[in-house]
Amino acid sequence: MPDPMRSYLDFEKPVAELDSKIDELRALADAGSNIGEEIAKIEEKAQQALTELYAALTPWQKTQVARHPQRPHCVDYIQGLITEFTPLAGDRKFGEDEALIAGFGRFRGESVCVLGQEKGFSTETRLKHNFGMARPEGYRKAVRLMEMADRFGIPVLSLVDTAGAYPGIGAEERGQAEAIARSTDACLQLGVINVAVVIGEGGSGGAIAIATANKVLMLEHAIYSVISPEAASSILWRDSAKAQEAATSMKITAQDLMKFGIIDQILPEPRGGAHRDPAIMITKAGDAIAKAFDDLRGLDADEIREQRRQKFLEIGRKLGA
């Protein structure tokens, strides 16, 4: 039987069948059968199938990969990259929002402020973190920490992974749009370097509120869009079943966004996606983050703000050209 810890997406069925065959043969080998060579051949075939499959993913398939439940989450990146991490809670206005994790720690020996959206990885943690969809207090907490980081000259790292800001009645009553706008403005006003990494799903204002950064990095199979494909298809065609068509039309992949100048770098994922080797992905992300910080080191506060401002102004100019 296949490993119960493995979770396959619909389009990965050919790979799932090969892996199942490998598991069956390994069981026979454990029982004394001399079939090591046959197992090696099928393993090679499975790896080749996975490589070919992920080399030609459609935007909708990338959306599925970006949402994979076993993909490394914000908490995994913090655990793997940040030492002495101290989370801070509350926006000092209403309460705590656990959809957005925020705190201070050390990244490769240097102080850093970390903001990240956490979706959760089990029923209990998904409910606790509200599936990564922050309420106004989450964004006001982010503003509070960014202002603190700016005051003490500490760079900011944002880990983006959300379907969007929470659209509930309570969130709207407490000023969701205003909170997102102020968080975006706080990013723009920072006199310290900020780097954002889209590690999974970058959805709408919920993502841009912490991703308005000097450098925006994005994982190879992540997505970043103004609205989800399902919501877009419901609005445009009044049919959520056309989400695949919407995903293709919206240009939400890292490759599309790199062409438009919306992101600055694509981080290659392990074969078969980040969820197949989280440790390697987290290490690669750490190296890219370190380089992004190094590239901007030495700029003063005004130069940092101007670089960030010009980066976002250029996006509109390029798209309008």
Automatic annotation (TrEMBL):
Gene3D superfamilies hit by this protein? 2-enoyl-CoA Hydratase, Chain A, domain 1
> Which EC number(s) does the record attach to this protein?
2.1.3.15
GO CC annotations?
A: acetyl-CoA carboxylase complex
Where does it reside? Answer: Cytoplasm
Q: In which pathway does it act?
A: Lipid metabolism; malonyl-CoA biosynthesis; malonyl-CoA from acetyl-CoA: step 1/1
Is Nucleus one of the keywords?
no
Give one GO molecular function term. acetyl-CoA carboxylase activity
**Its quaternary structure?**
Acetyl-CoA carboxylase is a heterohexamer composed of biotin carboxyl carrier protein (AccB), biotin carboxylase (AccC) and two subunits each of ACCase subunit alpha (AccA) and ACCase subunit beta (AccD).
Q: Hey, which family's this protein in? A: Belongs to the AccA family.
What name does this protein carry? Acetyl-coenzyme A carboxylase carboxyl transferase subunit alpha
Gene name, per UniProt, is accA
